[in-house]
Amino acid sequence: MLVRLLPFLGWFRNYSASAFRVDAIAGITVALVLIPQSMAYAQLAGLPAYYGLYAAFLPPMIAALFGSSMQLATGPVAVVSLMTSASLEPLATAGSEAFIAYAILLALVVGIFQLALGILRLGLVVNFLSHPVVNGFTNAAAIIIASSQLSKMFGVYVDKAEHHYETIWRVILAAFDYTHWPTLVMGVGAFAVMYGLKRLNPKIPYVLVAVAVATLVSWATGFHHDARVDMAAIMSPEVRGQISEFNHEVRRITELGDARAQVNQKVQQVTQSQGNESLEGLKLKQEASLDTALIELEKSKAHHLRTTLRDHKFVGVPQPDGGLRFYLEGTQPTGSQTDGRTWRVKVGNRPLDTAKLTMMGGGAVVGEIPPGLPTLSIPKLDWGVGLQLFPYAIIISLLGFMEAISIAKAMAAKTGQRLDPNQELIGQGLANIIGCLGKSYPVSGSFSRSAVNLQAGAFTGLSSVVTSLMVVIVLLFFTPLLYNLPQAVLAAVIMMAVVGLINVTGFVHAWRAQWYDGAISIITFICTLAYAPHLDKGIMIGVVLSLLMFLYKSMRPKVAALAMHNDCALRDAEHFQLRQCEHVAVIRFDGPLFFANASFLEDQIDERIRHMPNLKHILVVANGINDIDASGEEALSLVIDRVRSAGYDISFSHIKEGVMDVMQRTHLLAKIGEDHIYPLAANAIAAIHESAHRDSREESCPLTSVCPLDQVHVGEGA
Length: 718
Prior knowledge:
Blueprint: H1 2-5, H2 17-44, H3 50-55, H4 59-66, E1 74-75, H5 78-88, H6 97-119, H7 131-148, H8 150-154, H9 164-177, H10 181-200, H11 206-221, E2 226-229, H12 237-274, H13 279-311, E3 314-318, E4 324-328, E5 342-345, E6 357-360, H14 383-415, H15 421-437, E7 444-445, H16 447-455, H17 462-478, H18 487-498, H19 504-513, H20 515-531, H21 535-555, E8 559-564, E9 569-572, H22 573-576, E10 584-589, H23 598-611, E11 617-621, H24 630-645, E12 649-653, H25 657-665, H26 668-672, E13 677-678, H27 681-692, H28 702-705, E14 713-714
Helix pairs in contact: 2-5, 2-11, 2-16, 2-17, 2-18, 4-15, 4-17, 5-14, 6-14, 6-15, 7-18, 7-19, 7-20, 7-21, 10-11, 10-18, 12-13, 14-16, 19-20, 20-21, 23-24
């Protein structure tokens, strides 16, 4: 019982010093991959890079301590990071304090949902995400993730558009206008190093090598070269005017946003006191709508100004005092000597500090990382925001758990370990809940790092505890070394990681299994791409299509006409092109008989009566009916009445025990007649054949002429 509550106690059965040595080496190896990956994934989630280290601090250890898999490596992953960004962008600006707070709150909501599923042993709810849907979504997500890093690879800055493909088009246009070549070389070089080392020897920590080399080169070459200057150093009145105008628009957006928030608070108060339809409430709602319209107008103006400022390219002219003056390219004084760099104004979503304007003359790097561990604290609970995040939390929880459990199952198959999906849900849930106390955003099991863990020979989850301790050491002592890590290298790390998510054969496999599964997978893929960054729409369309297909198949199960095959088995006459008896219709209903399809059986029997003029008897082979509800029983009773009142007879064989119990309780068995219930189809054919063929002109009955009745059986998959 204690081991069930504290699964990690089971690690130490037959544990030895040699096993600890292996776990320690595996944990260090995974940490070498996790540290750079986690920083890259944090930026994919819209957070500062060091929040990836925070997400790699507590969650790996907690998930291992309370999960059931010995080798599953938990932490930031690409798809969950992308979903986090997509969930929070409608609520706050990426990277802002509010965005960070919401990301931590999202981890808490995700963790609570996963923990609840695990405690209630509802891990099977993950089956609502079918494999075709997940395959389509994952392939689209891989493309979205990879393409979202292009701006960092080219060293350009653009505003995000309503749709992801519009944002990528903006990136392409910006790259055509200006590409920072050292940044592109850094990114492509890092990708080449990782790809080459992985092909050479996968055991080499290729991510760490690429990051270390790129950081060293960045430091040695002065890759990062920013300057803080007064706006007066920009020798263009037009640009200075645009900066002032931009600051005005951004402040105006903030003022309107604050005003709208106050109006919305008043709306809630009036609604509670006077109801939804009060005159004052309607006026306030109209005022809030006007503020929203004005905010959108100001955002459009700010976007235009931001784009214009980013497009400006300057040259720096050194001054006698050691400073620089910045001129638009081609406008510098004749004969003046420039510093040889192309400079740009760094523009974000906040007002620019005109006394300390940031001019970029090099590439972007990670920058300063706060030293030390994150302060442990309970995230601020905003139930209004929490409810808004809950639908996204469900999707992230299920997607993250599907990824984690599929990895864990694959590893358990190799190691022979017993895996408990519900315990794994508890472990993942606690990892997110406790992780958020250390400022973590949502995490899940990682395929690549779990593979590294297994390959390194991890014996128990103690390897993940070692991984967490390695992250602690980095946060305490080595964060200054990460200052010069180029952003383009982190983009290359992400691109390298998501290449493995692209699985074209998954579409082909789904189509070969069932054409509609392939179609659902392709539709999910297209919709996810089209609606990005609103990824929830793509996956919800896939889920709805899967459920609709399930309902359609349940409403119209296969009703096969059976005939005798040469192997003495009753098989599907249409599939095997077999001749059927003119007087006896042998049919098999494949599926539970319930309210959604009860009338379908009746329709199928009526159709056979219409198309078989010499029909006398219907034999229902019921081995496919594994369940029956009240509607199904009522429909079956009506079928029996209609068939017999029309002058035909009906019998049943292979009735399962559960269905027979329902028939007995509802007295349907008495209506059918026990002399019309047969254990085997052969018994039924032998009993009804003579009466059904009395005065028949059929030369030979295919039910009896092909095989002796004592050898007849119902074929599997007939």
